[in-house]
Design goal:
Layout (H helix, E strand, L loop, with lengths): L1 E2 L4 E6 L2 E6 L6 E2 L3 E6 L12 E6 L1 H11 L6 E2 L3
Parallel strand pairs: 4-7
Antiparallel strand pairs: 1-2, 2-3, 5-6
C-alpha cells in the first residue's frame, strides 16, 4: 500500500488500483512481556545491584513503532 498527504491509501490488487480511506487506528493485540533490565551496565546479571522493569514483546514493539511514526495504536491484551 502507498499513502499520500490526504490520508488515502491505494491498495494495489491483481485487478488494478483501488482507492480507500485509511482507518485512523491500528489496534494491536497480544501479550506484553516484562524485561528486567540491570540499572548499571557492564556487569553480569549476578553482579547487578538493581533492575528496572521495561515493557517488551512483539505487539508492544509494533505499538511503540507506530506511535513514533505519529500514528495512534491502542493495545488490547489480557492481564
Amino acid at each position: 500500500m502507498v499513502g499520500n498527504d490526504l490520508g488515502v491509501c491505494k491498495a494495489i490488487t491483481a485487478n488494478g488500483i483501488w482507492d480507500f480511506h485509511l482507518v485512523d487506528r491500528i489496534v494491536c493485540y497480544g501479550e506484553i512481556l516484562t524485561d528486567f533490565v540491570p540499572t548499571v551496565g557492564g556487569v553480569s546479571l549476578a553482579e547487578a545491584l538493581g533492575f528496572m522493569k521495561a515493557a517488551s514483546g512483539a505487539s508492544v514493539n509494533v505499538v511503540v513503532g507506530i506511535s513514533i511514526l505519529g500514528g495512534s495504536s491502542p493495545f488490547m491484551g489480557k492481564v
